[in-house]
Design a protein that fits this description.
The protein is an alpha/beta fold. It contains seven helices and seven strands.
């Protein structure tokens, strides 16, 4: 059984991005969106600009601080699961995270955005928080049918609705 990463949130989190479960590269690095071809961090750089390091010993911590400072949070729908490889289609015996405490740890939370279809399958759980819930195109390299530009446009629309881009 694989165990996911803890939520990356703060009291200032206004929009929470929910993935499905970290891939092999992310689990090995203990970092959200750790695969070098995943578009997550590139989309944020395109939306917010800035010179955020992608290399170096403290680059992940600096990226996390940058993300949190913009009112964004990150977590996954699954707390644990069995899976060989990184594909969502290989997830078995998954345990869904408990989202009930999110309102206390994130009092400014305005909305949830699911990063991809597997995550969105659990929108029934996140809708119980009484917040807007969105389905975003997956930033995974496995989602090759969507270009970077098309993903960026969809993400920008949601971020603009919640004041996360100027």
């Amino acid at each position: 059984m694989l165990t996911g990463l803890p939520p990356l949130v703060s009291p200032q989190t206004r929009l929470l991005i929910l993935g499905s479960f970290p891939g092999v590269a992310s689990l090995a690095a203990q970092q959200y969106y750790g695969h070098p071809r995943n578009h997550f961090w590139s989309i944020l750089r395109a939306l917010w600009g800035g010179d955020v390091p992608v290399e170096g010993a403290d680059s992940y911590a600096r990226r996390c601080d940058w993300l949190l400072a913009h009112g964004l949070g990150v977590w996954d729908v699954y707390a644990s699961c069995e899976r060989e490889g990184s594909l969502d289609s290989r997830i078995r015996n998954a345990v869904v995270n408990d989202f009930s405490a999110l309102r206390q740890s994130c009092p400014a939370l305005e909305a949830i955005a699911h990063n991809g279809g597997e995550s969105f399958r659990h929108s029934v759980h996140t809708r119980q928080l009484g917040l807007p819930v969105y389905r975003l195109p997956s930033t995974s390299p496995a989602n090759a049918s969507w270009s970077f530009e098309r993903k960026l446009k969809a993400w920008r629309e949601v971020f603009e609705q919640h004041g996360l881009v100027g």
